[in-house]
Amino acid sequence: MKYLILLVTLILSESLFALGDVEAGKAKSQTCIACHGQNGISPNALWPNLAGQKDQYIIEQLKAFKEGTRVNPMMSPIAKMLSDQDMENVAAYFSQVKD
Amino acid sequence: MAFRALLSIWLLGHLPLAFAYPEYAVRYNMISCNACHVSPTGGGPRNINGKLFGAYGYKMNPFLVQKYVSADFRALFYYPQRPGPSRDGMGLMSGSVAGHVAIDEAQRIELVLEHNLAGFSAGNYRDTYALFKFVDEGKRGWLDSILVGRFRAPFGIVTDEHRTYTRLQTGSRWFDFDTGVMASGSPSDQFHYDLALVNGEKSLGNSLNAGQAERYGGVLNLRWMPGALLFGVSGNYYDQKSPTPSPKAVSLYSIFSLGRWTDDRIPAVVHFEYTRAWGWNSLLSQGFANDSSYVDSIKTTGSEGMLVLAEYYLSRHFVLIYKYDFLKPDHDYPADIYDRHGIGFRWYIGPNTSIQARTEIARATHPSESGSTAIGGQNATFGILQIEL
């Protein structure tokens, strides 16, 4: 019985925390790779890698750019093109890319 | 000497020189050009973001990732349909260097000095201005900045594709700088304006001239970008004392980013521009038209022009280009027309480094222009190597 409860808990937790659709995020990531590099590895020192980044962190930063609580001349307009679902999808994609 | 002068004058008016890439602005939702360029109208020196973005994913020399110096080098090979002693071959288009620095701690006052050190002689005095910024970087408002000095006029599509009749027709070629004051602002994420009050002297205007204080000019540019489609309208007017006609022009333009619209499933962009102009046709005498009496006859007529430019990204580094443009020097006599189809490519081979090649089929219907050795009626093939810092 306790193994069943553990299994159900694991399944539920997976579905609760996997916010985005990886495939949809990969399609949307074409916007990101112009600066953050193919597969989320940035070609320069000023723009960060996204590969392997925590999904919640990516979502929070994108929301901050969109809402104006964080400002950057490149990221702010780009974030405004993304819906909440887009952000979750993109975050899900980059968080599972291994650098 | 005469050979070089003729070559310079002719090529200056009719070959492409980079300005900016407004298709990127539409693709990435940037209504103001200063996300990448120092100037809010785009073109000219770039900031760090512009330099890194222009690296196209290639790794840059880390010493060049800085915000104080920009440079622009272009080498050209040009082969026209009817090559003559002064109309073909290889040359340097540009060897331009710019310094730009914010002089106050808050970085609200920026000084820009750009000079063309090598290449064609016209347009040596390029961006030379002080830029006063009223909003923090990345923010916007009704008045983002005021620019004082010499600058590129914010007219029409300020694009890397400068081999267009629409620029020649409206006095907004790559070397047509203005001197004056320009206010720019972006009241919303979708709307941008530039308003310039200038001395109306164009290339002569970098110094004092007799009667200059009595003349004036103005350029207004409005852009609206509700999504993947950008709409713009520009107007210019340069008051001159009679009997010299006061040139004026208007441009309606649009940029459609299919890449943005389709999440890059169709990685393409289409530019469109329609122009009407009055009093600018004397510019055709600078090597474009063959017959000076023909140019005299159309000096005061109203002209009509159009540009369609389509680009398709086969990969991130290789772009196919198609262009069509036409010019009717006299709108009321449409039988006289110049038009041109061109196909080619642009290939990014390194950070801020590209090769462009194109062949164009041109036509001129006026009897004195058809079959002439002037630029207006000739087919041509050209290649450009471009490196920017």
Topology of this structure?
The complex is a heterodimer of chains A (99) and B (389).
Chain A: H1 2-17, H2 22-28, H3 30-36, H4 55-67, H5 75-79, H6 84-96
Helix pairs in contact in A: 2-6, 4-6
Chain B: H1 2-14, H2 22-27, H3 48-54, E1 69-80, E2 89-102, E3 109-119, E4 125-133, E5 145-152, H4 165-169, E6 177-188, E7 191-198, E8 216-224, E9 229-239, E10 248-257, H5 258-261, E11 268-278, H6 292-297, E12 302-315, E13 318-328, E14 338-350, E15 353-364, E16 380-388
Antiparallel strand pairs in B: 1-2, 1-16, 2-3, 3-4, 4-5, 5-6, 6-7, 7-8, 8-9, 9-10, 10-11, 11-12, 12-13, 13-14, 14-15, 15-16
Can you give me a brief rundown of this structure?
The complex is a heterodimer of chains A (99) and B (389). Chain A has 99 residues and is mainly α.
What would you say this structure looks like, in words?
The complex is a heterodimer of chains A (99) and B (389). Chain A is an all-alpha fold and 99 residues long. Chain A has one domain: Cytochrome c-like domain (Cytochrome Bc1 Complex, Chain D, domain 2), CATH 1.10.760. Chain A has six helices and no strands. In chain A, α2 packs across α6 and α4 packs antiparallel against α6. Chain A is globular and about 55 Å long. The mean pLDDT of chain A is 86. With 389 residues, chain B is mainly beta. Chain B contains six helices and 16 strands. Chain B has a 16-stranded antiparallel β-barrel. In chain B, a hairpin with a 2-residue loop joins β6 and β7. Chain B is globular, with a radius of gyration of 20 Å. At the A-B interface, α3 and α5 of A face α3 of B.
